[in-house]
Design a protein that fits this description.
The complex is a heterodimer of chains A (557) and B (279). Chain A has 557 residues and is an all-alpha fold. Chain A has 16 helices and no strands. In chain A, helix 2 runs antiparallel to helix 3, helix 3 runs antiparallel to helix 7 and helix 6 runs antiparallel to helix 7. The radius of gyration of chain A is 23 Å and the shape is globular. The two termini of chain A are 29 Å apart. By secondary structure, chain B is of the alpha+beta class. Chain B is built from 4 helices and 10 strands, in the order H-H-E-E-E-E-E-E-E-E-H-E-E-H. The two termini of chain B are 44 Å apart. Classes of the chains: A mainly alpha (557), B alpha+beta (279). At the A-B interface, helix 3, helix 8, helix 9, helix 10 and helix 11 of A face helix 1, helix 2, strand 7, helix 3 and strand 9 of B.
Chain lengths: 557, 279
Amino acid sequence: MAHHEMSFSEKFLFPTDHKYIGLQYLWSGLFMAAVGGFMAYVFRMQLAFPGESVPLWGVVTPQNYNALITNHGTIMIFWVAMPLLIAAFGNILIPLMIGCDDMVFPRLNRLSYQIFFVSMVVLFLSYLVPGGGFGGSWTTYPPLSARAEYSLTPFGSSLWLLAVALEIVAFLVGGINFLTTTMNARAPGMKMMDIPVTVWMICLAVILFMFSVGPLVAGAIMLLLDQQLGTSFFVPSGGGDPVLFQHLFWFFGHPEVYVLLLPTFGFVGDVVTTFARKKLFAYKTVIYTSFMVGILSMIVWAHHQFIAGIDPRMANIFSITTIIISIPLAIIYMAYIWTLYGASITYELPMMWAAAFLLEFLVGGLTGLFLGSSAMDIYFHDNTFVVAHFHYTLMPIVFFGGFTAITHWYPKIFGRKFLNGVGKLHFWGTVIPFNLVFIPLFLLGIAGQHRKIYDYTHFPDLMNAGYQDLRIFATVSLIVMLVFQVLFLYGMVMSAKTGEVAGNNPWNSTTLEWTCPSPPPHGNFGATMPTVYRGPYEYNVPGSSADFIPQNLPSKA
Amino acid sequence: MWETLPKSLSTFSDDMDKLFWDITYLMTFSFIVSASIMIYLFVAFRKKEGVKGQYIAGEGGKQMLLIYIPLAIFVCFDMYIDVSTAAVWKKAKVSLPPADVTVRAIAQQWAWTFVQEGNIQTVNELHIPAGKTVHVEMESSDTLHSLSIPVFRFKQDVIPGRIITGWFKTQDFSVVKDAKNSMVARYEAGAAQGKVSVAPHEDTEGSAVFDIQCAEMCGVGHGIMSATVVIHSQEDYDAWVKTEKETLHEMQEDAGAAPEAAPAEAAPVEEAPAAEHHG
């Protein structure tokens, strides 16, 4: 198979090569993360110093505040987490890890990013139209979102909805590609149970996404009709039902959490085995249990609606399923922990991030038990305890997981290692302030502070002595954390020029992506495509003198 | 110095707080055990010269016990949480004790209107007697709202087109008043140190006032949709009702309007039945 040298436009403007499409998603995701982070800075400043002019923004009006929190959530989920964890690393890693030259539908892949790009443009446009950006929260509950006289954003809400719908289309197109490629284009000899966990988890995430997203798309279209044509699917005065939308939304919204979690479990699995020089503990159990997580995650959605007007007797069922889902997650978690037993761990950057993920996600997971309990949820519904909980899950998933993947595969993508000193400084400058942002939010939530409020001075019980100190403390910690992200960007750019040159396999890892050159050429593996002879994590195999045996090394007869 | 949960002033808030602390103990235990094991492994198995990683597949029955034994303990925790949750949930949300006082709560962007005792109507002030079972019949005239009273651990989304009934019963007035006094004391101590804070709601002798929140995004003014619950002693409540009725009567006589038994005017939801009158 001959692969020609690519022109500039084939590489960077309209690429069909999976690696360049992955890079487009990677840089887009990082750019949107900066936008989302800036939004967090603005609204946290408003909470710490209500009514005062925020540097780089100005006075935050209630409409500003609502639009900022809405778009912060939307951006971080749909335009950061999804492109970073699934699209960027799915694109870059799937063909490399399963040993093929590209995705099976390269031009469909290009289309996926193009739709994604349009969705970003539409999202930004939603801020510029009369009335401003949509401020009805990322859950976009009607009737607020369905009628301009309630939301006061006649165009912003529709453009926001359109942007989300386009983003979903982009991921459906990309997902089709991921699944087809993994099913059909694996290197000869690679059986299902020889696939690295990263690829498994991304594919499971895509399957879960496809199963759950249909109702949301239907709901979004009905909502769009309610907004623009005045239909009443979700508006009670015309016979509609607002709670129906909540079901449609959360039928997608909850599995979505696991859509994001699974890829990070994949990255962390690959990184932990590499740096622990260990086989993954109970690999098959991890895979089967991940299926269980996927299935269970589709019957827990109404725990978001315990007090939303559903029949209170239904709550017991969803409370039980929600708490049951902690069981398969605990199994996967323990498999990862026990992988460390008897290991020989080196703390390179990726391993530091993976370790931070495992420790911090534990807090997110365990605090979920409070919210799965319907009775506790009466108190914690729409409370900042929820905010702290899901940031303790999503920050480790998206950013710690994202940094794990970026630092681990950086040498493969750019041919050089991520600068070690810069990376370590950035690590501590992110992990420590992260805890200092969200522990105060737990405390304030327990004290009764509700969410999405732009000025707590209207609630004297939440302004008793000491509470405002916590808000200021959280805001200052956030600013420190954001400043350290500049260092990361510096590392991203400079490491590609001045980092330590990496060979094909800088981490002595076993999977196929480490057998091709760094960075891989168009076509990835050159003239001879790899053949697979064994499972993905053969480190320190008894009887072998080598520290590791790559998947593609022929067994001695 | 740090107070955790707010004052617990309804008959089910103590149950809910007990559940909170139960879960907190179980989860803290789980966290300490898991994190200790993890940190131990992180430290104990870092690379040492001449020591290679071990080859452990983790597939055999015996090795799987490492997963299943902790899992069994965790499942016990889960079951305990599920069972105690169901009991508290039943008390707070499924059961509905008969009402002593019924209040209609009408939410709209961005205020609460409360109608009770015939047609006494108040805006952003919910007046209730201490120690009595209160039914709140919640409705909305525009978007979703959520009636949240942290000191009662009460919260219910309010949905246009529906009337949802919730209930609470406060503890004795002396308990309520003591709780409020300690909040005021805390504020005054903080103010003396110059801490940024806002004075608690002002009470009268026979009442104690706490925050009501709207806990569901309801548009631009969501952040200022605050109200208060005024908990009266029984005598104080009776006196309040009497004064309100007299004022209402005078107003109606001035206007030459119908006698006071006329149904309440505020009925923004068309299919809403007339308010029930208790007395």
